[in-house]
Write a structure and sequence with these properties.
It holds the Pfam family OMP_b-brl_3. This protein has 781 residues and is mainly beta. It has 2 domains: 101 residues, Immunoglobulins (Immunoglobulin-like); 501 residues, Beta Barrel (Maltoporin, Chain A), CATH 2.40.170. 4% of the residues lie in helices and 68% in strands. The protein has 5 helices and 43 strands. The strands form 4 sheets. The chain has a 22-stranded antiparallel β-barrel. The longest helix has 10 residues. The two termini are 43 Å apart. 29% of the residues are buried. The N terminus and C terminus are likely disordered.
């Protein structure tokens, strides 16, 4: 297998003899000029073009001959020279008079967010004042439609849509690894961010949105090192740090880094359940302390085989050791006389030792013509292993004690092949097709042992092995056609086939899954004029049963609560249509409708005074919604302000456990993000974010309203940046209530305010450039 993979990626293809022109564009005071356009023409016809990187370096290749070489900046010609190209030419440093040519055409420092068919594209990042001395993850939180959790552990679109994070269009081993990478990569190294709320046919059909972060690959960067350190004080203290290295020379480009975290957290929860049939109430109070260490190293290597070919390799890992100690007190009351009947105490130690994830990617890309038509191929390998021990001690009111061990060890292995073909046409049309195959193997070895005073002895009724195998195959095709400068269509179709089998060793019980699905997508873009644009989107998706719910093990949580999985869960299918109106570049209004079949969720049911947590389907849903958001720079860029607001209405009709389900809910949310710069050079910035959610009702209950307030004050000292701040300042405890004819429950989760200090140091090739905003100038796409 390895032999064929190497042949596939390294097989030599036809090459053409090329000569190079390279150099560097600087101002007369030696500041680099980024995004200068380098042009090579012959007899008035443009043959080649490129842009200078953040250090002003450029390089283009062409066959031998006589050409006219030009440098332009936002349409303004700055330099011209005739070149007889017989061999490689090094033009050295080309100095441009800043005072006369560049003073009035500096790039605007405001980032741009624009709807492009089925996705939002965030550009001009490296020139935005919001990217200065920020990590990519910190910068991502300045995008109006993106919300990053204050602790950096999760990202959502519009505060509700979970996302899959890609870097350069590729999975890097899961969101935990991706978030660690984004916390160390400087924002100024990002070329573009794509935000896709409802992914089209190019992506695996799932209900998650997608955030694709595209890293700028500079051609000449001797090195850049960024060091980060942060300390967060909540109930306990957590420390984390990261290091990032970027290097490129000639045909090589390397980025690597490592994220380290040492955490300690406290959680308090209070649950109350009433069984109306027995008239009994159970109160469960839980105090938990979690300690853990996580290490996430990664490296990405790209090598240019020729002008038209590149190969690359990525390796990322995550190593974790975590332990949660939980004290649980269960009190039992008779509702009629409100008297305590009994009380049980449980101690639980949940220890995960030597958990690790390893992810490999090999990729190859060949450009086929002058229009950048290409074939790209990827081979991915993913492996994760964990050793989990759940020690439990239950002390009962009658003086008896029970000790047992649950040891669910899981191993996951995935191999994936993917090839995409992209054909670009002279009329700017584009055809994209692709094929994708993956094979997964998951083994769960669950040991359940009762303590006999010396050791834990296996209980044959509970100990078991569950093996799950899955084959996935997909084909897709997208076609984009621009009928005019103001109207275009993107149409796509995706076919997916999934076959899976899960086998329980004890009784040979088998779970079989086999399904085929077609997922069409459509996007229409109409530009009314330069300041008004309409986009219509249609997409379809499927939420497949998570593997964790197919595994039929029963987990004991406390003396009277268990977790039961459901291997017969049905997939949820969803269709979405939305209309987006963009006006004056800064404002976006969205209207949407979604139809969903076979919804599933977690349930808490009280059965014979035992609390059973499980997952099941419960009905179909119709959702309507509207979103409005904008971002503006005010007071000569000293105040960057963004606002987002969502209103969602949905109804659900169905049945669970022979009880009708009827939900009519309206959810309102808004978020305000402010970045205030206090000095002329914008070295001091105060970031203030406020959010409000009116609460919502779903199948699992009604949740109370939520407020959030986060503060961050930062100061730059040349290559050093320090910030202090706090988050969850206004966040209340979360309360969830539910009631039906059989039982009711009330759950409360306590939150703790958090304060932090962080430091960042950049060593090496750091761009230092004052960016001037001029509203009347042309913006950079």
């Amino acid at each position: 297998m390895i032999k064929y993979i190497l042949v596939f990626f390294l097989s030599p293809l036809f090459l053409f003899s090329q000569t190079k022109i390279k150099g560097q564009v600087l101002t007369t005071d030696s500041n680099s000029i980024e995004f200068a356009t380098v042009l090579l023409t012959k007899e008035g016809k443009l043959l080649k073009s490129d842009i200078s990187d953040e250090n002003g370096f450029f390089q283009i290749e062409e066959k031998q001959g006589e050409y006219l070489f030009k440098i332009a900046y936002l349409g303004n010609e700055l330099f011209e020279k005739e070149i007889n190209l017989k061999e490689n030419v090094d033009l050295g440093v080309i100095r441009i008079d800043y005072g006369t040519e560049l003073k009035e055409i500096m790039i605007e420092s405001k980032l741009k967010m624009k709807k492009n068919f089925d996705k939002y594209e965030v550009t001009n990042i490296s020139n935005s004042i919001l990217a200065k001395n920020k990590s990519t993850l910190e910068f991502l939180n300045t995008v109006p439609i993106v919300n990053v959790a204050p602790d950096g552990k999760s990202v959502k679109i519009k505060n509700s849509k979970s996302v899959s994070i890609l870097i350069n269009g590729r999975n890097v081993g899961g969101n935990d690894v991706a978030l660690s990478m984004l916390q160390s990569i400087p924002a100024v190294d990002i070329k573009k961010i794509e935000v896709i709320e409802n992914p089209g046919s190019s992506y695996r059909a799932g209900d998650n949105g997608i955030i694709n972060v595209i890293v700028n690959k500079t051609k000449e960067q001797p090195f850049k090192v960024v060091l980060n350190a942060k300390s967060t004080q909540s109930f306990y203290n957590t420390q984390d740090g990261s290091a990032y290295l970027a290097f490129s020379k000639n045909k090589w480009a390397v980025t690597s880094g490592v994220k380290l975290e040492n955490s300690k957290n406290k959680a308090y929860r209070y649950d109350s359940y009433i069984d109306f049939k027995s008239n009994d109430e159970t109160q469960i109070e839980s105090n938990a302390i979690t300690k853990g260490t996580n290490y996430t190293p990664y490296v990405n290597i790209d090598y240019t085989l020729s002008k038209n070919q590149t190969i690359g390799m990525s390796l990322s890992s995550r190593f974790s050791n975590n332990e949660t100690n939980r004290d649980i007190v269960s009190s039992y009351y008779n509702v009629t006389n409100n008297q305590l009947d009994s009380l049980n105490i449980a101690k639980n130690k949940d220890k995960i030792s030597n958990y690790h994830v390893v992810y490999y990617n090999l990729n190859h890309k060949i450009v086929l013509d002058t229009l950048d038509s290409n074939i790209s191929s990827d081979f991915n390998y993913y492996n994760s292993r964990n050793n989990r021990d759940m020690f439990n001690t239950f002390s009962y009111a009658n003086g008896k004690e029970k000790r047992f061990l649950q040891n669910p060890d899981n191993t996951t292995e995935l191999i994936e092949f993917k090839t995409d073909y992209e054909k670009n046409f002279k009329d700017s049309s584009k055809l994209t097709t692709g094929i994708n195959y993956s094979k997964s193997n998951i083994n769960s070895d669950n040991f359940f042992g009762n303590y006999n005073g010396v050791e834990y002895v296996s209980d044959d009724r509970q100990t078991n092995v569950f093996k799950y195998k899955e084959d996935y195959f997909a084909l897709f095709a997208n076609y984009r056609k621009l009928f005019s400068e103001s109207f275009g269509v993107l149409i796509g179709l995706r076919y997916e086939y999934l076959s899976a089998k899960g086998t329980l060793k004890s009784d040979s019980e088998t779970v079989k899954i086999s399904n085929s699905n077609l997922f069409p997508s459509l996007a229409l873009l109409y530009g009314i004029n330069d300041e008004h644009q309409l986009t219509l989107n249609f997409a379809s998706s499927i939420t497949r049963t998570p593997y964790s719910n197919l595994n039929p093990f029963i987990y004991i949580n406390s003396p009277n609560s268990i977790r039961v999985n459901n291997p017969y869960l049905k997939n949820t299918k969803k269709s979405f249509v939305g209309l987006t109106y963009t006006f004056f570049d800064d404002y976006n209004l969205e209207l949407g409708y979604a139809k969903t079949h076979n919804l599933f969720n977690n349930f808490d049911a009280v059965i014979d005074n035992v609390i059973v947590n499980t997952i099941d389907n419960f009905g179909n849903g119709d959702g309507y919604g509207g979103n409005f958001y904008f971002n503006k720079n005010l007071f000569k860029n000293h105040w960057s302000f963004s606002f987002s607001m969502s209103l969602e209405m949905y109804k659900v009709r169905g049945e669970y456990n022979n009880i009708p389900v009827k939900i009519d809910n309206t959810n309102f949310y808004f978020n305000i993000k402010n970045n205030l710069f206090f000095d002329k050079k914008k070295n001091t910035v105060l970031t203030l974010t406020y959010g409000y959610d009116n609460g919502f009702e779903d199948i699992f209950g009604k949740v109370n309203a939520q407020h959030s307030l986060n503060l961050d004050l930062g100061r730059s000292f040349n290559d050093f940046y320090v910030s202090i701040g706090a988050y969850d300042l206004l966040k209340p405890d979360t309360n969830m209530r539910f009631s039906n004819s059989a039982y009711s429950f009330n759950k409360k989760q306590e939150y703790f305010k958090s304060y932090f200090i962080s430091m960042r140091y950049t060593l090496g090739n750091k761009r230092i450039k004052n960016v001037i905003s001029k509203e009347q100038n042309e913006r950079l796409n």
